[in-house]
Each structure stands twice: as C-alpha cells, then as structure tokens.
Amino acid sequence: MKYESVMGLEVHAQLKTNSKIFCGCSTQFGAEPNTHTCPVCLGMPGVLPVLNRKVVDFTIMMGLATNCRIASESIFARKNYFYPDLPKGYQVSQFEAPICEGGWVDITVDGKTKRIGITRIHMEEDAGKLVHEGALDSSKASFVDLNRACVPLMEIVSEPDIRSPEEARAYMQAIRDIVVYLGVCDGNMEEGSLRCDANISVMPEGSDTFGTRAEIKNMNSFRFLQQALEYEIDRQIDLIESGGQVIQETRLFDSDKGVTVSMRGKEEAHDYRYFPEPDLVPIRTDDAWIDRIREQLPELRSEKLQRYVGEMGIPQYDAEVITADPSIALFFEGVVSGGTGVDPKKASNWVMGEFARMVKDKGLEAAKITPEQLADIIGLVDGATISGSAAKQVFDEVFVTGKDPKAVVEEKGLAQVSDEGAIEEEVQKILDANPDQVQQYKDGNEKVLGFFVGQVMKSSGGKANPKVVNQILRKLLSD
Length: 479
Known about the structure:
By secondary structure, the protein is α+β, with helices and mostly antiparallel strands. The chain has three domains: about 5-290, no CATH class; about 300-410, no CATH class; about 420-479, Arc Repressor Mutant, subunit A (Orthogonal Bundle), CATH 1.10.10. It contains 15 helices and 16 strands. It has helices spanning about 55-65, 165-180, 220-240, 285-295, 300-310, 315-325, 325-335, 345-360, 370-380, 390-400, 405-410, 420-435, 435-440, 450-460, 465-479, and strands at about 5-15, 70, 75, 75-80, 90-95, 100-110, 110-125, 130, 140-145, 150-160, 195-205, 215-220, 250-255, 260-265, 275, 285. Strands 2-6-7-10-1-11-12-13-14 form a nine-stranded mixed beta sheet. Strands 5-4-15 form a three-stranded antiparallel beta sheet, with no helix packed on it. The longest helix is centred in the middle third of the chain and has 20 residues, at about 220-240. The radius of gyration is 30 Å and the shape is elongated.
C-alpha cells in the first residue's frame, strides 16, 4: 500500500524586543544564568504583569506579512501545565481568541509553488532552560536558567497542508525569511530564537481521513527538521504494516542517531486547563493601529527576489544568494543605485564574490566600505582606470579602512597604463625575448597569445591595460 504524509508546523519565534513580554528584564542572550530575572518573571506572589506593546506590534506585523486577519479583540489565557522551568507553574499564552488568524504563505519546491495555510499566530511567554550537567558531587543534577522565562514568543501555527519533509523545510525557511526581514526575530536557530514543533501522520494514498499524529518537539535546524520527518514517516508506515498502531504522543529527535524517541503522551487542549488570564485586559486593535503597522512593512525576501530577477535582470541564483541576508541585499541595492549607475550583474558579482569573501574572513561588522565606494571601484574598472586585479587590491583596502577608492589607487600607484606607445615598447621587448613562442603563434598556435599577455602584465606590474595589450600583440604578431 502507498501512503501519504500529512504535516503541520508550530513555529516559535522569540521576538527581538529589548525587554520581556510582561516585565522590564533584559532579553539579551548569553548572560550569566538567572541574572535577567525579577519578581514578575519569577512568578512571585502578588506581582502583576504589564504587557509589552512592542510584542503586540511585532505580532500584528507578522500577521499582515502572512495575509492574516487581525482580530479586533484578543485575550490572553493561562495554560496550566507543569513547567519545571517556569516558576509560576503555568504559561501565559492565547487560546480561544488569538490576535491573528486565517493567513497563508507560498513556498516553492522543485520549481512548483504551493500555498500553505496559517491557522493562527498568537503571543505567549517562553519558559526557562534546564541544564543537565551530568555529575555533581557524584550524583546527577539538573539546573535551571530562568533568563529566558517570560521572553516574548510568537507562535505561528500552520494548517495541515504540508505533504513532504521538503515542503516542511521550505515552509520553515519561508517563515524564517519573513521574521528576519521584518526585524521581529533574529532567526538564530542555534540559539533557539527560532524553533518548531512538527505534527505528522500518514494515511493511505487517496484517503481523506488523517491518521493518528505524533508531535516532534523543538526542531532548531532545517536539516534536522527534514531528517526527523523522513524518519518518522518510515517509522509510522512500518508500524502500521507490521500490524501495530500509531499512538498520539510527543517525540524528540536524536540527531546523533537520526531517530525520533518517545517523550510523553500527547496532550489535548483540555489537558492544559486553559482559562482567561485575569491579570491582563483584552487587547483591542483598531484600523488606525493596524494601518500604522502596515505602513512599516518592509519589502520581503520573496518580493525582492521577483524584483531582482524581473526588473534588474540578474540570475535567480544571484538573487537567492544576495537576498539570503537582508543586510547584504541592502548593500547590493546601494551599489546598484550608487555612482553613475552600476550594472546589476556586475554589482551582484562583486557582492557575491569579493564582498562575501571579506565578510566571511573579517565579519560584516568590520566592513567600512560603503555601497557607493564599491560602485566607484566598479566604475574605475569600467573606465579602464584600473585593471580587474588592481580593483581587488583597492577593494580590500577600502573594506578595512573606508578610504576613498581613488585615493587608494593613487597611494598604491595602481592606475592602469593605457598609453599605446609605452605598451607597444613593452610588448616588443617581450616578443624579442621569446622568438620560439612568436614562431609558434605564427604557425597557428593562438594559445600562445595568453602567454605573451601574462608576460607583459608581469613586466608592467599589472598596470598595462589588457585590452590595449591584446590589440598591440595581435598587430605586431601579424606583421
């Protein structure tokens, strides 16, 4: 029997606010354990939460970017469940009245575009972090770091529209692109800023009745997400075909072994005993609020891709590489619009080549070069002021110092020599010194021309204009 897989993802994005969702504690990652805490996020008796308005703004922004309806009124709820890393013993989330519902995003897999529905987007607080140290005084121990407790989370819940691990990966990547371009989440999956739970079931091909689903918790890698789903599909099919039955449960992915393992029975909504949060008033959004957020929406990656390929005419591959990072895309656009107007393909070559090389080597924060300066360097090459190899030297200097490209050319003496008389004199010296190669050329071996060009460039310190060198070589060799 053939089977079809059905998947839905619950993506959790830590919002990039300076303070937590219900208190003023810092959300900075990497601080000493339990130093970003206060009575509110520690759940002390008698404290009252105060909602961070920026969290609401960011969630509305995400809702608009994913074509959701924004609720005119939404409420928080208490999710009562044992959280060993959330001191108050419940999580403040949203249940019956989320702030965003009924959206969608488009993904592309194997050249085909598919629309994935979004059921809801809601706000909630994150839990702390358990740290298992192994052995302490000859006994195993676990520690809790509550810096992350009460950090604002946005949960994006998809419809069960995903039908393959490849689609799941593409959907997760699309969500990451959106939150990063919006600036609401840094998208750092290694640090847990973006992670997801995957619900998956299998059913006979052609059936319209979903099978029993399992949930795989806390996927923080595109690769692990795909691997976990691939394994889980095979596990469920093998279980069914061997006469067993898939049970509803929560599982974890062991990335070292490439398998999912049972964690606990899967909870239903009634297990969480949701009820309205009594300490927080309903959130009422009006058209003016939503319109203000809508005006702040930036151009998303999918829109940039279409514009770069359709309007600028650069290859799809170039566009995908450049738009992978919003800051790189911004730099590229500055190069294209800088100077006297740079050809987009030349700009993409430099951004993907030399700029990417230096960023990888020294880091983006070390880049002192401006888009306009790179445009000037490209212009110097186009105007035959410097050669391509000299341009790379100029670029490296400007990248780390921020100096004017023309000043660097003058300081280093990199200006290209285009004087035909001087070049012809240098070419003649090379020809006179290499009579055997001259004869080879005259016998029909045109590849020798490259040898002569290299010798001339070497003798001129790379300053001779290669175009003029080629012209003069062909002229003298044909005499």
